[in-house]
Amino acid sequence: MRRLLNVRPTGGWRFGLGLIPLLAVALIYVIASSAWHAANPTEKVLPTVGAMAAEIKVMAIDTDPQTGAIPLWQDTGASLRRMGIGLGIATATTLVLGLMIGVLPLARAAIGPLVSAVAVIPPIAVLPVLFITLGLGETAKIALIVLGVTPFMVRDLAGHVAAIPEEQIVKAQTLGASTWQIALRVALPQALPRLFESLRLSLGPAWVFLISAEAIASDVGLGYRIFLVRRYLAMDIILPYVAWIALLAVGFDLILVALNRRLFPWAHPARGR
Amino acid sequence: MSAILAFRNVWVEYGDKIVLEKVDLGVEEGAFVSIVGPSGAGKSTFLRLVLGQEAPTRGTVELDGAPLRPEPGRDRGVVFQRYSVFPHLSALDNVLFGLDCAGSMALGRLSGARRREAKAKAAAMLEQVGLGAALDVFPAQLSGGMQQRLAIAQALILHPRILLLDEPFGALDPGVRLDMHALISGLWREHGLTILMVTHDIKEAFKLGTRVLALDKHRHDPQAPHRYGARVVHDFPLDRKAPMAIPPELAAAD
């Protein structure tokens, strides 16, 4: 009899095994909500699938007569725009600071402590400061995302660059490379796959910061909508919105993984032995 | 022949620990110098000095009569035991790297006709070390021996005054190591290289070298072992045509 830890599911099996718990959760929900509703038809906490479908139609397909827009798409557009600008700024900052700190001992001594200090501040605690100084508009929300994920990304990238074997750096110098050329042709290309990875890991926290900022002061956005309809216990809107956010998050994750593999084949030698 | 590399009364100390003491040495152009010695006898420090990774505490190291800057430079090529090639560049781009850096300060990358010219040079160099069929392969897809061939080609493309080898074949299988011995001997002769090779393998040292230096502490103080540094305790000039038997004082350490 093989040991349990040596049993490896392959192909369809692996996919199927992952699907079972997901389907089980969905099934349990459907059974629970219909049973609940049979007892109390006005119940709001576990909306039936039918009720949610009706609300999805209202939110995602019908135009809101007051605003002239479809709420779900309007919210998604606004949230993704904030997310995109925030993560874009964070990534660009990380690339510059991370490379500098990783390559130059001088920069490590000068900027390292500042980055470490900013990193220990809980970003949500600074949110009032952002709202006060930057106003309640888009800037504060984007700034929260930037402030929230950049310190982690910078430290991660700097650590990765600093861990490039010294042999490589010495070798590059014996080949006549200057500091700039080493940063550009040795450190940068080896940093990029890691940057993708750390951006991927930062997506989760970035969503947290985005939804927090939207919940507190906004007039459009996925987080705004969830917290708005919470007042009416509208679980039939909240649950589909949460599922939609989860779907978006999984989508970005997959896109980043695929891009990383496609752009940097050298960093992903053939898997499996 | 003139000395290309000279150590003049070189001492290296870390705090009160003496690593190398009173090393006086001249290396002639075209020599293949093997450096042996027990662990901790300053072999790596010796190499780091020549490479410019550190500066002597006292004394000077001179290359072509001028004191070395304490910084690696393109006059000294190097092949380490591991990690001396760039994992993100193909074999051809690895060899091109030196030419790229010399030809384009801002981008570190040649373009157009100059790149084509450099590519032809690099491909010829790879052909010489037996990697003519692996131009577009990333290092991770090459075996250990092929990676070392690549590292050698990468260093030689710039025609360094001295080639430093830091236990270059230490991680290779015995059969592959023999192929590498033939390769490096051939390149040494063809290119008229001056080579300094640090090795653990005394047979290899005597087989390849025209001169074998043994580094060791000349005195051992049991109360304060760190107060005596290593120096060159044996210096064997070899005649390549009449291979010399390994001297008994070194054979014991093998």
Distance between the termini of chain B: 32 Å
Beta-strand residue fraction of chain B: 25-35%
Question: If you average the pLDDT of chain A, what whole number results?
Answer: 92
What is the quaternary state of this protein?
heterodimer
The percentage helix of chain B is 25-40%
The major pleated sheet of chain A works out as: none
| Biggest interface, CB < 8 A | A-B, 24 and 36 residues
Tell me the number of helical segments of chain B per DSSP (H or I, 4 or more residues long). Answer: 7
Helical coverage of chain A, percent range: over 70%
Q: From the 3D coordinates, which CATH architecture of the largest domain in chain A would you assign?
A: Orthogonal Bundle
- The low-confidence runs of chain B, each spanning 5 or more residues with pLDDT under 50, are none
Question: Would you identify the regions of chain A where 5 or more consecutive residues have pLDDT less than 50?
Answer: none
The rough form of chain A would be described as: globular
Q: How far is the N terminus from the C terminus of chain A? A: 23 Å
- Domain module count of chain B: 2
